[in-house]
Amino acid sequence: MNEDEVRCAVGLADSCELLSAAFAFPDEALAAALADGSFRDDALACLSDAGAPEAARDRADRCLEGFTGVDAAHFEGVLRKGHTILYLTPGNDVPVWPYEAAFRYTAENHQGAPSLFRSARTLDVERHMREAGVLPKNARKEPSDSVWNELSFLAYLYGNAAAAVQEGRVDDAETWRERAARFWDEHASCWLPIFMDKTREEAPRQTFGGEYAALATLGELVLDEVGADITRWKNRG
Q: Which Pfam families match (predicted)?
């Protein structure tokens, strides 16, 4: 990895971590960052570091600008209602499942309730995480294959790859890049882009949750850059 590739890896790590925060259950910090424009500024800076083209950065800017200036305290409640309706509706009629195994189970038109903890896909996500030396703190209470956990894991992999290069551990950097590529191929790419598209489709239909359509647009842009980076890494000479 050269200097530009390290910058890209850091940008992708920060972008994925920002997305993880955007799709986790909303808190005061997220609402405040969206309201005061710091989330928007960070997202644009991360996309720039990741090498996103100007058109993608402009689109991200447009989709996030509407949040700036809203009342943060009220907005937190709006986000919480939207997140609950979109992703945490009780029963099987969840508009958009936020867990990989359940999302893909439903997308494949299987009948019956999806397994949230013991499915082969969830267990394989945990295997990837354990091999990399990390596991979500709440893994026993919530499936590890949530959109926010998988995005945070991608951030962890990219961050470690960049750190290894900066510290002169070239072989370690390649190991982290390989882990990122395998996780992308076997899990993240199989559902996260579709999850973002589904969120953009469903969010405007709900009583609350329309804000998540804009966040999902940002998600699509970030994931486009992750996919492009993985492809470049695989095709390197």
A: Nitrate_red_del
Q: Model pTM greater than 0.70?
A: yes
DSSP reduced 3-state for 25: coil
What digits encode the pLDDT tens for the residues 129-175? 999 999 888 877 889 999 999 999 999 999 999 999 989 898 999 99
Q: Which two tokens stand for residue 115?
A: 């397994």
Q: How distant, in Å, are the alpha carbons of 218, 220, 221 from that of 197?
A: 11, 8, 11
Length of the chain: 237
The domains located in the chain, with CATH, are 3-235 (1.10.3480.10)
Q: Are 127 and 186 spatial neighbours (Cβ–Cβ below 8 Å)? A: no
Q: Which distant-in-sequence residues (6+ apart) come within 8 Å of 116 by Cβ?
A: 99, 101, 102, 122, 143
- Number of C-alpha atoms within 13 angstroms, CB side, residue 227? 14
Angle of helix 147-166 relative to helix 3-23, nearest 10 degrees? 160
| Cα–Cα dist 143/138, whole Å | 8
Q: Is 1 helix (H, G, I), strand (E, B) or coil?
A: coil
Angle at 15 between CA 172 and CA 45, to 5 degrees: 115
The amino acid occupying position 148 is W
